[in-house]
Amino acid sequence: MSPRTQVIGIVTIVLALVLIMELVRRRRLRTGYSLLWLFTGLAVLVLVVWTGLVEYLTQFLGVRSPGSMLFAAGILFTLILLLEHSLALSTLWNDNKCLNQEVALLEWRIRRLEASLAGEPATPASASVPDRQSASGAGPNLEEDIFEPAM
Amino acid sequence: MWGRQRVTGSYPGMGSVLVVIPAYNEEESIRKVVEGVNHHIPAADVLVVDDGSSDGTSRRIRESDAELLRLPRNLGVGAALEVALRYAEGMGYSYALRLDADGQHDPLDALRLLEAVRRGEADVLIGSRFLEAGSGERQAARNPRLRYQTTPIRALGIKVFASLVSLLIGQHISDPTCGLRCFNRQAICYLARHHPQDYPEVESMVVLHRAGFRLKELPVAIYPRTGGVSSISTWKAVYYVFRVMLAASIAAVRSLPNGKPAAAGRRPMEPEKIPEEEPHVA
Fold first, then answer.
1. Which of B225, B129, B242 is nearest to B177 (CA)?
2. Chain B within 8 Å of A139 (Cβ-Cβ)?
């Protein structure tokens, strides 16, 4: 690696690190996610500065050229990152689903409350539920919210 | 408490019944379906879950005699059923009947499923359009218009699902995609927490079986859609087949939520006493 390439690499990485810090500072990027990017940037910085490390790793792993090894490492890292994002998306999807369901249930309760406030009579024949508790075995615990949140 | 007064009626000696109808862009048919249910199963409450429809489905439901849960965004049938069953659980319903919103199911068939669950024949009853010698087949024989219309690829998909589910749960299942189902209280409480998502029909049978619930099929008639379009287009069918097969297979080996079958500790089902006469409450 020529000194010129080295300088370009170092400048690029420093700029990237500054960008990440700036995104965190402006609260655009969550601190938790920024850690991964900061560590990655530092790792690449080490590889650029300490050229002997790449040579050593290439020989140690039995890879023919340092370039191939760096590409392989980059692709592996990208795949791990993609998996991480899929995990995050799954979590977000589940959270989104639960929130939507809660909204639906709460909206139903509001409509009920508004109807009862407007003086609408309670549901007709509402008293005729003698067997409900015995048939269900486990009736709702009325001390608590009747709609338990999802997992 | 106000929440408990919603249960408007129940069959004598039977506990209360909630009819659950997930609906996505079904404004043409939903009112008719609700009216049909109210007419044929007058003692049951009806809950329609509007799964983030972009048409006038919610308005139609408000106009009809049904409770409405409106999901702000489209989450899929699985999430819609899950929230409906959580409602059923919270309100203390003893049975839940699930019908499709497109008018394919006959409320009278739903009643037959309900009766079977009530007699303790199984925890979950599922309609089947393929079981022979049933009233569905007889009906279809009388009126060919009622014979279930399907595309070849869809028929093949259903056959594949049926074989897969039968293999996974060790019980012959002929129509695992049917949306006409009846759940007892234990199944309601379980599915309110662990309902499969996306395309849940096939997967839920595996999930229920693994949780220790007994499943049974009854022959039913399936009518042509009265309006709207199926949520599964032919183009998506192949993708759907593979996705559902994967989901069902994973469900068969997935770790159980509590580490043990949910129905393991529950008391054995006792057939309920069926009253001599059934005056309509509504």
1. B129
2. yes
**Closest residue of A to B77, CA-based?**
A97
CA-wise closest residue to B214 among B260, B253, B261, B179? B261
List beta partners, residue B95.
B17, B184
Q: CA-to-CA distance for B83 and A144, rounded, in angstroms?
A: 18
Phi, psi of A63 (to 5 degrees): -85, 145
Q: Is A113 on the interface with B (CB under 8 A)?
A: yes
Q: How many angstroms separate the CA of residue A82 from the nearest CA in chain B? A: 21
Spell out where chain B has E strands.
Answer: 10-11, 15-23, 45-51, 67-71, 95-98, 124-128, 181-184, 215-219
Is residue B41 within 8 A of residue B68, CB to CB? The reply is no
Q: pLDDT by residue (tens digit) across A90-110?
A: 999 999 999 999 999 999 999
ipTM: 0.77
Nearest Cβ partner for B87 among A137, A147, A150: A147
Please give the average per-residue pLDDT across A18-37, as a whole number. 89
